[in-house]
Design a protein that fits this description.
Elements: H1 2-30, H2 36-61, H3 69-87, H4 94-120, H5 127-145, E1 147-151, E2 154-158, H6 161-170, E3 177-181, E4 186-187, H7 195-213, H8 216-226, H9 228-233, H10 238-261, E5 266-267, H11 274-287, H12 292-308, H13 316-331, H14 334-343, H15 345-362
Antiparallel strand pairs: 1-2, 1-3, 4-5
Helix pairs in contact: 1-7, 2-7, 2-10, 2-11, 2-12, 3-4, 3-5, 3-10, 4-10, 7-10, 8-10, 11-12
């Protein structure tokens, strides 16, 4: 019972933290205290928190190193945008079309996550990192060259620049609609994303992740991470449990990608490169792997910090690197951890309770 109560308190604390931060941001915007830069960061901040917490399920909870999270985000972004553009004249109600676009983006990313996970999750070592890294780069380059359009004669898709140029000449210009235009990406995606929707999607993602970790499947995932042989001996299907974690993380990355694409005027595949995957991994590692609240706080600090240090010009990234090093050192310092535990509200309540119980015993 104590374990269940502790897990419930941890989940409740995480939700309260996110709600308080949302209320603070909304108050700043409503009262006019927020700058345009601050407002511009809010939707993307929700996107990156979803990405970091979902990657934490793979890296921190499952113990597998994935370097292709940006690839799954890219699939979700392009799938969601293509869905919205193709059906914006059919499904004119945005609050029906947009959730469907998020789901489509998540499902497409989950399908690719499943296909990659089938061969890789049966192996051990760094194979997952190598394959997901290659997958992310392949997806980026394919979507950077693909041309997708349709007219009254049907759908046309190609990876050849010459073929796309010939299609523009031969197709019916009056009915031709270009959806993906090669390196130019996608333009005209309905800007349906906003901070409130981003917050709602974030809360749903956290609900899925936290309840998955606290379930029997989550405990199987952690057991497989800690000792694969012992978990298999106890009847745990290690491959299946790791696949569940990987596909769930891929799905949420796809949802985050679709949320991200509906906040942009121009969507280009070059945004989803190797550096983005490493950046998300940095959020997870410095936030403390296996700690959802730490990952959320780390993402907020490390995403907003470079934006607010732009006035430093060329020294901005130097200072950012110093902050990363300090966070890494403090995060692994036993004295600093003990200090945080000492000043935490939960510890203060426990000390007050113990003191009251001791005074009652003395009487």
């Amino acid at each position: 019972m104590k374990i269940k109560n502790k897990a419930f308190r941890d989940k409740l604390t995480t939700f309260i933290l996110v709600i308080v931060l949302f209320a603070f941001a909304q108050t700043m915007v409503a009262c006019g205290f927020a700058s345009r830069k601050f407002e511009g960061l809010l939707v993307n901040l929700c996107v990156y928190i979803i990405l970091a917490t979902s990657l934490n399920l793979v890296v921190g909870i499952s113990g597998e190193l994935s370097l292709g999270h940006a690839g799954f985000m890219c699939i979700g972004a392009f799938s969601g945008s293509v869905f919205s553009l193709a059906l914006q004249n059919t499904i004119t109600i945005w609050w029906i079309r947009f959730p469907l676009a998020l789901i489509v983006g998540g499902i497409m990313a989950a399908v690719f996550g499943f296909l990659i996970g089938i061969p890789v999750l049966r192996l051990r070592g760094d194979y997952l990192a190598i394959v997901t890294l290659a997958f992310g780069e392949i997806i980026k380059n394919v979507l950077n060259n693909i041309y997708l359009a349709y007219d009254k004669n049907g759908i046309f898709i190609t990876l050849s620049t010459e073929n796309s140029a010939q299609y523009k000449i031969n197709s019916d210009a009056a009915t031709r609609v270009e959806i993906i235009k090669g390196a130019q990406g996608i333009t005209g995606t309905p800007k349906d994303s906003n901070f409130i929707i981003g917050f709602i999607v974030l809360m749903i993602a956290l609900f899925i992740l936290l309840n998955l970790v606290d379930s029997k499947i989550g405990r199987n995932i952690e057991a497989s991470r800690d000792n694969r042989i012992a978990a298999e001996a106890m009847g745990v299907n290690v491959t299946r449990t790791k696949m569940i974690a990987f596909v769930t993380a891929s799905f949420l990355a796809g949802v985050a990608g679709a949320l991200y694409s509906h906040n942009l005027s121009v969507l280009q595949a070059t945004k989803f490169d190797y550096n983005l995957s490493i950046l998300i991994l940095v959020y997870v590692v410095l936030g403390g792997m296996n700690k959802m609240r730490g990952v959320i706080i780390s993402t907020i600090i490390l995403y907003a910090l470079p934006e607010y240090m732009r006035f430093l010009d060329k020294y901005r990234m130097l200072l950012y690197a110093i902050v990363l090093i300090l966070m890494m050192l403090l995060n692994n310092n036993a004295r600093f951890k003990a200090f945080l535990a000492k000043i935490s509200p939960k510890k203060a309540i426990e000390r007050a309770r113990d003191k009251k119980a001791a005074e009652g015993g003395d009487r």
